[in-house]
Amino acid sequence: MNKTGYYTHRDCWKHDMGHDHPECPARLDAIEDRLLMTGVSDALERREAPTAALADIELAHDRMHIAALRGLTDRLVDEIAAGGPEHAQLDQDTAINAHTWQAALRAAGAALAATDAVMAGELENAFCAVRPPGHHACRDKAMGFCFFNNVAVAARYALERYRLKRVAVVDFDVHHGNGTENILSGDPRALMVSFFQHPFYPYSGDQSPAANMLNVPVPAYTRGMELREIIEMMWMPRLEAFKPEMIFVSAGFDAHREDDMGQMGLTEQDFAWITYRIKDIARRFSNGRIVSCLEGGYNPQALARSVEAHLRVLADV
Ligand SMILES: [Zn+2]
Predict the structure, then answer these.
(1) What's the CA-to-centroid distance between 175 and ligand 1, angstroms?
(2) Separation of alpha carbons 87 and 137, rounded Å
(3) Which of 136, 175, 198, 310 is catalytic?
(4) Secondary structure (3-state) at 217
(5) What SS3 class is residue 171?
(6) Distance of CA 24 to the CA centre of its chain
(7) pTM for this one?
(8) Per the database record, which ranges form the Histone deacetylase domain (predicted)?
(9) Where are the alpha helices (DSSP H) in the chain?
């Protein structure tokens, strides 16, 4: 059995943060086009993302944070009906429209449903082509284009629902996954390994705050070969020692050399290599179980090629 799930939902296209915002629906179009054109789509089991239950989102977020997002959405819908603007700004980079709440429920729901399917053995692994992304969303705060932390919600769910003892989170986005760190730091059932450009948004992570966090800040212009060495020397021994029963991936592709959001030098070959290493750990310790969720990646062509490379490894095509 080697089936790879592909979770998405049209609601994820409807969330929009305003004209010219880099975290835009066209990102998902670019991915879908590329997967169709290359035939990789045919190797995937496509599934609709359900909406997440609020009780499951509460595994990683405060009730007040969830209620606030719901309330802001209701207010925005009323304001739009009264002729107001289409968006409400939460911070400098992060805004909601009338569809954000539903898209955020689908994005977290994709990660949860993928977890169920992988745990049930229906799928070996899965990729969630969703937006909004999640890894900057903290327990009580939306930020950095993120509202609910899809990966942290699913990781906590796997621990609670399936009584797993150890889950790993691997984050290769160019930005530090401060939200995931905020939620999982100090939880010995979770190990998070990441690298990220530093100093850079969100200007955190230069120190690992707890024993279960392995943060590897790297300078701008770091290239693939250097990163592969870092991963081999720092991530791999920690993952091998931890022996995760399941692996969650914050799959951001904004460390690509053609992505102007960051200044790192990775290519699709590097993303494929990282995916091989993750898959190797999953094969040895986790019964192959991987749930990967889209985070960043803002050059649509580079993003699409990188997701293709990631999926070719996950699905063995
Ligand atoms: Zn990012």
Answers:
(1) 4
(2) 19
(3) 136
(4) strand
(5) strand
(6) 15
(7) 0.98
(8) 21-314
(9) 11-14, 26-38, 54-57, 63-81, 100-119, 150-161, 178-184, 224-230, 236-242, 268-285, 300-315
Q: Average pLDDT, whole number, for the chain?
A: 98
Ligand 1 center to residue 274 CA distance, Å?
16
State in Å: Cα 177 to ligand 1 middle: 8
List the structure tokens of 8: 């998405």
Q: Residue 293: beta bridge partners?
A: 128, 250
User: Residues within 5 Å of ion ligand 1 by Cβ?
Assistant: 173, 175, 252, 254, 296
Answer yes or no: 136 catalytic: yes
Per-residue pLDDT tens digits for 269-311: 999 999 999 999 999 999 999 999 999 999 999 999 999 999 9
DSSP 118: H
Residue 211 is which amino acid?
A
Coil, helix or strand at residue 248: strand
pLDDT band, very low/low/confident/very high, at 208 (cuts 50, 70, 90): confident
